[in-house]
Each structure stands twice: as structure tokens, then as C-alpha cells.
Write a structure and sequence with these properties.
about 180 residues, 5 helices, about 55% helix, mainly alpha
Length: about 180
């Protein structure tokens, strides 16, 4: 070890030796309590994220425009004359995009939740209504120059409310853990 680390270790040991036995017990108890609070918060973190994600997705869903007509997605191949096929691959009923806005967890992200349109698996086809959703039309509604970008506007206006909701739920979790320790 270097000189600095030797000095630091001897300084800490000297500090520990100068503490009274009662103060050392109190410090050890305090660190154990902090570990319990931290473990409790770690356990509640996913539940907090789910609540905040539901709040955000509900608020964003209220801003999604809903079409009156059903829409279809067609195959993109051309026949020998260069004409497109008129065979629909998927049919989207009104409200499909609105229902597809959901909170989502991803495997590699342990402490984050994502809110956005849920897309159907690749090459999916059929009828999308009810609980079966596909966010296929999101890019056309969100990025079209003639339309209002509903998702970005809603996310920007909600950022403060989401932050406040996250802080208040985290405080509740920590206070619950502290109350459990002190009683």
C-alpha cells in the first residue's frame, strides 16, 4: 500500500479508538438501520416505478388522437406490372394507438420504466382491436409535419409531475421503513 492509504487507515483506526464504546454501538446501530431502509427502498422501487409509469401512460393516452375509421396495412411487394398488392395484411380499429401506449420494463434496465407505444412482434398480421394492439401508426401520427406531436408535447408537460410523483412515492417508502425501524 502507498503512504496515503497507510495514513488513512491509521487515521480511521485512531478515530475509532477515540470513540467511546457507547458511541461505537450507536454508530453500528445507525448503519444497520440505514441498511434496512435502503433494502426496503430497493424492494419498493419497482412498485414505485409501476405507479409512476401508469400515471404517465394514462396522461399521455388522453392526448392521443383517435381516428373514426379503421386503417389497414398492405403488403409491400409489387406484381409483374409494377402495381402494389391490394391484399391487407393487418387491420387497425379506432383507438388502437391509444391502447398501445403502456408502461414497459426491459430486461437490462433494472431501475427504469419506459412509456411508449407497444409494437406487435415483427411481421404480425390480422385484426388489431380490443386488447391486441400494435403501435405501427405511431410514427405517422407523431412525426407527420401536418399533425401535432402528441407524445413529445405530453411528455414535456408531464416531466415535472412525474418527478414530483416519483419523489413523493419514494419519500413514503422511506418513511414507512423508518417507522418500521423506530417502532
Amino acid at each position: 500500500m502507498g503512504l496515503l492509504s497507510d495514513f488513512f487507515i491509521s487515521d480511521v483506526q485512531g478515530f475509532q479508538a477515540s470513540l467511546s464504546a457507547e458511541m461505537q454501538r450507536d454508530l453500528i446501530a445507525m448503519f444497520k438501520d440505514l441498511k434496512k431502509v435502503s433494502a426496503n427502498y430497493r424492494k419498493d422501487r419497482r412498485e414505485i416505478l409501476v405507479k409512476v409509469g401508469r400515471f404517465a401512460s394514462d396522461a399521455i393516452r388522453n392526448t392521443v388522437p383517435v381516428s373514426r375509421a379503421k386503417h389497414s396495412r398492405y403488403k409491400t411487394f409489387s406484381n409483374y406490372r409494377g402495381k402494389r398488392s391490394s391484399e391487407p395484411v393487418a387491420t387497425y380499429y379506432p383507438g388502437n394507438l391509444k391502447r398501445s401506449i403502456r408502461p414497459m420494463f426491459f430486461r437490462n434496465s433494472k431501475s427504469a420504466i419506459f412509456v411508449g407505444a407497444r409494437f406487435a412482434p415483427r411481421d404480425s398480421s390480422g385484426i388489431f382491436k380490443g386488447n391486441r394492439v400494435d403501435g405501427y401508426y405511431w410514427r405517422f401520427v407523431e412525426d407527420n409535419p401536418g399533425t401535432n406531436p402528441f407524445f413529445r408535447n405530453a411528455a414535456n408537460s408531464l416531466s415535472g409531475a412525474i418527478y414530483d410523483r416519483m419523489i413523493s412515492l419514494s419519500r413514503q417508502s422511506i418513511n414507512k421503513a423508518i417507522d418500521g425501524i423506530s417502532s
